[in-house]
Amino acid sequence: MSAPFTLYTHAGPGPNPIKVAIVLEYLGLSYTTIPLKFGEGKGTVKDPEYTAKINPNGRVPALIDHGNDDLVVFESGAILQYLAEKEWDMQYDQTGNLSGRTPSERAQINQWLSWQISGLGPYQGQLAWFVLFHEQTHGEKPNGSVITRYQAEVERLRTVLDEHLGQAEGGYVAAGRVTIADFAILPWLKVSVLVGEKLRPLGEYRALKGYVDRLEGMEGVRGAYERLGVAL
Ligand SMILES: N[C@@H](CCC(=O)N[C@@H](CS)C(=O)NCC(=O)O)C(=O)O
């Protein structure tokens, strides 16, 4: 029997698909992966076949749940919530641990999930683009003030997270246990090494390095990185 899920991933270290692989691994759900390249043309995130049938936004991740009439979901936050809520409502786990067992827990988890998706991800993503890809794409060095702006915002966001983790119950961002919010944040902290000295090393913060180490020690996390071929 083929795997119940198909996960569209990045043929590289893109952090957003890794979040979904972590949750699938954590829940012990089997999946096949289809790695797509950045750019345009066949086999890329902008392949018209992919944007027509899977993700009109031309990005990864996207997930197909073959056990639910081949439901297609794109946007990592929506996918994490879908898997966690399906787990809560249906057969996958029934503990509600990942998504929150009460409206209050869900609000706390979703505020940190939203913080990652609307803050850390986009700002760090733009910083990485200007540092790593702008010159090769446009043939000129990026404007320094653009780098400074994104750098400052990512540092500000990391400091917010660091201060929160310093006093958060259990050392996780919400509900005193690991949730989809932690699994969304981890790959972004890890991938930040790609911009080198543009961001402070995680070890210079009070809590970030310990947080990453704790999450990395989890079997589901290790399994996801291994499965997607991204160095842990
Ligand atoms: N908000 C989206 C962002 C997805 C995203 O930007 N994914 C990156 C890979 S990590 C991508 O597909 N980039 C391709 C591109 O920018 O063309 C999500 O959370 O799923």
TrEMBL record:
Keyword Oxidoreductase: no
Metal-binding found in the keyword field: no
Molecular-function GO terms, alphabetical: transferase activity
Location of the GST C-terminal domain: 102-232
Record Gene3D superfamilies: 1.20.1050.130
Stretches assigned to the GST N-terminal domain: 4-91
Record key words, sorted: Transferase
Pfam families named among the record's database cross-references: GST_C_2, GST_N
InterPro entries: Glutathione-S-Trfase_C-like, Glutathione-S-Trfase_C_sf, Glutathione_S-Trfase, Glutathione_S-Trfase_N, Thioredoxin-like_sf
CDD domains from the UniProt entry: GST_N_Ure2p_like
The organism's place on the tree of life at top rank: Eukaryota
Family: Belongs to the GST superfamily.
Name recorded for this polypeptide: Glutathione S-transferase family protein
Organism, scientific name: Aspergillus sclerotiicarbonarius (strain CBS 121057 / IBT 28362)
